[in-house]
Amino acid sequence: MKRATNNTWRRVLSSGVCLTALLTPLGHSSALAADEASSTDAATAPAAPAAPPEKPKIDVRKLFAMNCSWCHDGYGMHAGKGPKLAGTTMSHEQVYLRIEKGKSGAMPGYGKVLSKDQIQVLADYIKALPSE
Amino acid sequence: MKPWNTKLAGALTAMSAATLFGIATSASAVDFDRLRNADKDPNNWLMYHGSFKSWHYSDLSQINANNVKNLRVAWVHTPSASKRGVQSFPLAVDGVLYYSSASGQVWALDGATGEVKWKYAAKLDQERSEGTFYNPYNRGIAIGYGHVYLGTTDGRMIALDQNTGKVVWDKMILTVEGGNKGFTGAPVIVKDMVVIGSNGGELSGCCGPIFAVDAKTGEVRWQFDTIGGDERSRASWGNDSWKTGGGGGWMTGTYDEATNSVWWGTANPAPDYDWAGEAWQTSGARPGDNLYSSSVVVLNADSGELKSWFQEMPHDAWDFDSAVGEFMSIERGGKRYMLHPNKGGIIFVYNADPSHAPLKVENAYMIGKTFNYIKGVDAKTGQLIGRRELPEGKHANVCPAIDGAISWNTGAYNPNTGLLYKVGQEWCFDIEVVKADPPPAFSGQAYFGASWTSVHPEGRKAFGHVSARDPLTGKVKWEKEYKYPPLASLLATKGNLVFVPGADGRFDALDGRTGATLWTHNNGIGHHGGTISYTANGKQYVAVVTGWGSHVSGNYCPLFGEPFCSMPTDAGQLLVFALP
Question: How much is the pTM?
Fold first, then answer.
């Protein structure tokens, strides 16, 4: 096989170096938490409510912007590729499950990418969005 | 295996050998000679872009401006599980129609009657496929050497027997440990290889590869990494950010025989969006130009080596990919040009000679009308003028929105009218950019930091248009406004027609000379796939795929209301039209 370019990544993988440690949800969430300490976001928050006080370390709006806003517009306040989330008729538990498992052919599942705490905080956030 | 079974198997092997032998000489064998000459073969539609010229033009004229009013449905095919609609291009080979639908299904149908010849459904790694934003659609297939080729959302390439739909080979091409990248675009046959690009502009990880695999065996012959593959690229991503950089080439490019080169458009860099603002050269998530994201790359067809490139969106701050696949090859005054539309609403006219590196821009013009992400584009150099950066924070009324002024479906060119037909879409968005935390390098996780709401352009409602213009100068001959921007590919025909599959379900035939609507048919659901023409038993047909639910189409309910809010996103069909 001829390779036109110098592909470091592929060499890393094929030389047997295990990347799994880097890919765990834990690795992701702790990186997020570490960065949160130096980040201020509240000043730019629009109408939607802020993160619930019991989870002060997770910036839910940022989490939303990083994972959900590709399809759910305006921090969940407007329909886009996905539906408006404000005023969802789903229960908290159903919202949690939808985020964790996704919906086949419509929305990816986040069970592997986000920690339980992060999913919890997103579900809290969505259920607290003003319904009108 | 029981003895009689062995015998049967032996007989079958002998039979398929005979069939194989038969293929090599029968009319249905599509060898590279046929593909090279596809532009002179109007009875068939042999590849995604029709021919390597990418004109989306049919030289048939049984159906024409005089009789198109009599056009009616000849037959319909309904595929199963059309999640997010049918987004593919049908291909027509010697009276048989082949097309793909969601989740890696392929159908072979009698081109005159719609009778099913065979069906194939790939078994996909659902977890990997569903982990991306780009699931489960498939945008098309390639046909050649007795095979039908398909890429899958879980990173495989599959070759099916063209006559039976049986798997000939099935290879994992794109191994992303822990990541979620795959193929949604249609492959294209180049010589004795099949070329396909990966998706993943918004996903963390290099290298956004484009592959050429052996048409007979599926062995990877070469791989070009759209990011991080060479020194020039790595040097244009400060702090080694190419390792989380996105890239890819998710639509279908073309082959230029005169220069033995593959032309391909590449996807945006990650993260979408960069929070650095004006200081992007030296700071932010990905300091520098971020080569070869949002670029055109020209590769040596035999080796995959980079011959030339042009970065249409240096340090793409808006997600205006260059991944649009069409490269229209146009000759005028003894000079050869390549036209490439960019999502930002610009048509770049390149000199087709890749010995200029970067590519020589002969002209660049805007077809989008509502834009403020730049002030304009320099027609001589193709450089963006007056960029509007999107640093961390809120930005109101950015135009066009993330969906661009040009979407991934194709325009068309009619050599008789000398006109380029192309759709433009006009709406904007309010966006807040946040400082996204980088996911682990190479992870394939989404790398993204923004939230937005689509809005109408200032002072008017969102709209679309189909224009007819000189392809090289951009001079408009006519333009027709559409209340709902069409999202599907156009087809131009020798019968002076331009077919426009509309967003609201209407399928229009326009007079290619004036833009007048000559015929319309309600297909009952929006379109965002391909449309072609072919013959079966000497009779001309026009085929179009339907179905709704792409990312861009998600804007239509919030922008326009009905019929889009209640339009299903899990249905679609193939409709075929003919004269009575």
Answer: 0.89
Cβ contacts of A65 on chain B, cutoff 8 Å:
432, 434, 436, 448-451
Residues 12-41 of A with CB under 8 A from B: 12-13, 19-20, 22-23, 27-28, 31-32, 35, 39, 41
Q: What distance in Å separates residue B279's CA from the closest CA in chain A?
A: 19
Here the CATH number for the domain that contains residue B258 is 2.140.10.10
| CA–CA distances in Å: residue B548 to residues B106, B156, B157 | 19, 25, 26
Per residue of chain B (580 residues), what is the pLDDT tens digit? 333 333 344 444 334 333 333 333 345 689 999 999 999 999 999 999 999 999 999 999 999 999 999 999 999 999 988 999 999 999 999 999 999 999 999 999 999 999 999 999 999 988 888 877 888 999 999 999 999 999 999 999 999 999 999 999 999 999 876 556 899 999 999 999 999 999 888 888 779 999 999 999 999 999 999 999 999 999 999 999 999 998 999 999 999 999 999 999 999 999 999 999 999 999 999 999 999 999 999 999 999 999 999 999 999 999 999 999 999 999 999 999 999 999 999 999 999 999 999 999 999 999 999 999 999 999 999 999 999 999 999 999 999 999 999 999 999 999 999 999 999 999 999 999 999 998 888 877 888 999 999 999 999 999 999 999 999 999 999 999 999 999 999 999 999 999 999 999 999 999 999 999 999 999 999 999 999 999 999 999 999 999 999 999 999 999 999 999 999 999 999 999 999 9
Strands B491-493 and B476-482, sheet pairing: unpaired
Q: How far apart are CA A77 and CA A118, in angstroms?
A: 19
ipTM: 0.83
Domain count, chain B: 1
Q: Determine the residue of chain A that is closest to B565 in CA distance.
A: A79
Using DSSP's 3-state secondary structure scheme, residue B15 falls into helix
Residue B380: inside a domain, yes or no?
yes
Q: Do B131 and A108 touch (CB under 8 A)?
A: yes
Fold of A60-128: Cytochrome Bc1 Complex; Chain D, domain 2 (1.10.760)
Strand order in the sheet with B428-433: B393-398, B428-433, B450-455
Residues 6+ apart with CB under 8 A from A1: B219, B220, B221, B222
Inform me whether the C-beta atom of residue B218 falls under 8 Å from chain A C-beta atoms.
Answer: no
Contact A4 B558 (CB under 8 A): no
Interchain contact, B555 vs A80, CB within 8 Å: yes
